[in-house]
Amino acid sequence: MNKTQLIEAVAEAAGMKKTESEKAVNAVFAAIECALANGDKVQLVGFGTFGVKSREARQGRNPQTGAAMTIPASKNVSFSAGSSLKAKVNK
Q1: How far apart are CA 37 and CA 66, in angstroms?
Q2: Are 73 and 61 a contacting pair, CB within 8 Å?
Q3: How far apart are CA 72 and CA 1, in angstroms?
Q4: Which DSSP category does 15 fall into?
Q5: Contact 64, 33 (CB under 8 A)
Q6: What is the DSSP code string of 23-64?
Q7: Rounded to whole angstroms, what are the CA distances from 58 to 12, 55, 73?
Q8: Pairing between β-strand 48-55 and β-strand 42-44 as defined by DSSP bridges
Q9: pLDDT digits (tens, 9 = 90+) for 10-65
Q10: Could you report the per-residue pLDDT of 65-84, keeping only the tens digit for each?
Q11: Of 46, 50, 57, 65, whose CB count within 10 A is highest?
């Protein structure tokens, strides 16, 4: 499912126009992005939890040349599925 299909599914399920559901979906994504950018967790009970994990700088190798290189520290978004979502996926 891509974003357009998600918007259509939300519009159909909520009885909204596609333009209204697009605004709603975009608002949800923006709120999640903003919270994660501020270092907060986003916990959706029954669905899952979005969070930010920090990675330390580390040594790696260039696969083409084999030369050692330093991979810089970074932050990555993580998602942990909730029990209800896990149950539906594993059904």
Answers
A1: 35
A2: no
A3: 33
A4: T
A5: no
A6: HHHHHHHHHHHHHHHTT--EEETTTEEEEEEEE--EEEE-TT
A7: 47, 9, 7
A8: antiparallel
A9: 999 999 999 999 999 999 999 999 999 999 999 999 999 999 999 999 999 999 99
A10: 999 999 999 999 999 999 99
A11: 50
Nearest CA to 47 among 87, 81, 90?
81
Q: Residues with Cβ < 8 Å from 11, sequence gap 6 or more?
A: 17, 18, 20, 21
Query: For the chain, what is the total number of helices (H) and then of strands (E)?
Result: 3, 5
Q: Which two tokens stand for residue 85?
A: 């979502």
Are 11 and 20 spatial neighbours (Cβ–Cβ below 8 Å)?
Answer: yes
Q: Does the pTM of the predicted model rise above 0.85?
A: no
Number of C-beta neighbours around residue 29 at 10 A = 12
